[in-house]
Design a protein that fits this description.
The protein has two domains: 2-121 and 250-351, FAD/NAD(P)-binding domain; 125-246, FAD/NAD(P)-binding domain. A five-stranded parallel sheet has the order 6-3-2-10-20, covered by helices on one side. Strands 1-9-8-7 form a four-stranded mixed sheet, with no helix packed on it. The radius of gyration is 23 Å and the shape is elongated. α1 runs parallel beside α3, α1 (13-24) runs parallel beside α7 (299-317) and α5 (161-170) runs parallel beside α6. It has helices spanning 13-24, 40-44, 62-73, 131-134, 161-170, 190-201, 299-317, 328-331; strands spanning 2-3, 6-9, 29-33, 50-51, 60-61, 79-82, 86-91, 97-101, 106-109, 111-114, 153-157, 176-180, 206-208, 211-217, 224-229, 236-240, 243-246, 264-265, 268-270, 283-285, 290-291, 333-334, 340-341. The protein contains eight helices and 23 strands. It starts with a strand and ends in an 11-residue tail after the last strand. By secondary structure, it is of the alpha/beta class. 22% of the residues lie in helices and 25% in strands. Bound molecules: flavin-adenine dinucleotide (FAD). InterPro entries: FAD/NAD-bd_sf, FAD/NAD-binding_dom, Fd--NADP_Rdtase_type_2, Ferredoxin-NADP_redctase_2. Homodimer. It comes from Maribacter sedimenticola. Its EC number is 1.18.1.2. Residues 5-293 form the FAD/NAD(P)-binding domain.
């Protein structure tokens, strides 16, 4: 049985940063993730996409953010159970928990922090007869490496931020990008909609609306899609393509965590914003997986929630100890292996 202080379910950015904050308080963490690698959505859905709202980083690729987080927590030596889904939880008489995965691995901890994000990644798929024939053979539901699409003909379908953002991003990489949406209006950010329109006017992107894909064709791999305009004439056209990427979003599924007796609202776990604890004392929920009035599903909000969660967990694990907050700039960062990173020297600039 794996034993730790804080058992974190989900190794996305929130779970990873929780390891750092816990480490500062000398609490050891172990993370479970259903995916074979750490990084959550950043690693699985958009590793090569730049993020612009991480404080201190004007621009950082999602994959690089994950690498940096892994580097930041290295000295705290967290444990990982990867490629296994947390399935059941049992509260023992002493108030501690045993969490067992689908592969039977048992984890024991006094604190459980659920950082499960969207839960299991289930893409919403278009209803097309022979779709499965082309999955990973021309059809993909998320873009992991944009380089796959270099100099290729790509059709993207969807009307949200992902469809807009990737159409804009791939316009510079693919030989041809066509964006198809069932409506003339998009649900995404206004500036993305404007950018798509601009690219269309410059001839760098084809936009077909309102329209839908009604057929896929090709011998061994995808060779063309059949598009039907949503109009009275119901005009149809074949588009020769190498890739079809329907970006209809991920249907959020909490999975087995939904049966743990936690208070759930719209597929998210309700928490108290004092310390992000759930209705079960000792079980916290941080990051995209939780909900409270004013909740925003942003990485920086997950970081904040992880920080406050760790303070509360510390008090639960050490009710007799008084917590004194120290800035990392003052104390440096000591890992569990005893390595100590010195606090960077203050640089004082003289203002002329
Ligand atoms: C295309 C796209 C662009 C985005 N752009 C931005 C942006 O610019 N800025 C921003 O702040 N945010 C952005 N986001 C949102 C951001 O990625 C999320 O807010 C963030 O990933 C949430 O982190 P998390 O750690 O809470 O959850 P996640 O990243 O979702 O990680 C949760 C992890 O938990 C695991 N898990 C779930 N259930 C279980 C279980 N039962 N057992 C084991 N493992 C489990 C999952 O496998 C997953 O790895 C974007 C999202 C997308 C999809």
């Amino acid at each position: 049985m794996i034993k730790t202080d804080i058992l974190i379910i989900g190794a996305g950015p929130t779970g990873l940063f929780a390891v750092f904050e816990a480490g500062l308080l000398k609490l050891k963490c172990h993370l479970i993730d259903a995916l074979p690698q750490a990084g959550g959505q950043c690693a699985e859905i958009y590793p090569k996409k730049p993020i612009y709202d991480i404080p201190g980083f004007p621009e950082i690729l999602a994959g690089d953010l994950v690498n940096n987080l892994m580097e930041q927590i290295k000295s705290f030596q967290p444990g990982f159970t990867l490629g296994e889904r947390a399935e059941t939880i049992k509260k023992l008489d002493d108030g501690t928990f045993v969490v067992t995965t689908n592969k039977g691995t048992e984890h024991h901890a006094p604190i459980v922090a659920i950082a499960g994000g969207l839960g299991s990644f289930e893409p919403r798929k278009p209803l097309l007869d022979n779709l499965s024939k082309y999955e990973d053979n021309g059809v993909a539901y998320m873009i992991k490496d944009p380089e796959v699409y270099r100099n290729k003909r790509v059709v993207i379908a969807g009307g949200g931020d992902s469809a807009l953002d990737w159409s804009i991003f791939l316009a510079d990489i693919a030989s041809e990008v066509t964006l198809i949406h069932r409506r003339n209006e998009f649900r995404g950010a206004l500036d993305s909609v404007e950018k798509v329109q601009e690219l269309k006017n410059q001839g760098k992107l084809n936009l077909i609306t309102p329209a839908e894909i009604i057929g896929l064709n090709g011998e061994n791999k995808l060779e063309s899609v059949l598009v039907r305009k949503i109009s009275e004439a119901k005009e149809e056209m074949f588009l020769e393509v190498d890739h079809f990427i329907p970006l209809f979003g991920l249907s959020p599924k909490l999975g087995p965590i939904g049966d743990w007796g936690l208070e759930i609202e719209k597929n998210a776990i309700k928490v108290d914003t004092f310390d992000y604890q759930t209705n079960i004392p000792g079980i916290y929920a941080i990051g995209d997986v939780n909900t409270y009035p004013g909740k925003l599903k942003l990485i920086l909000c997950g970081f904040h929630e992880a920080t406050l969660m760790c303070q509360s967990a510390f008090q639960k694990i050490h009710p007799d100890k008084k917590y004194v907050m120290k800035y990392t700039t003052v104390g440096g960062v000591s890992g569990f292996d005893g390595t100590k990173k010195e606090a960077p020297k203050a640089v004082v600039k003289k203002i002329e």
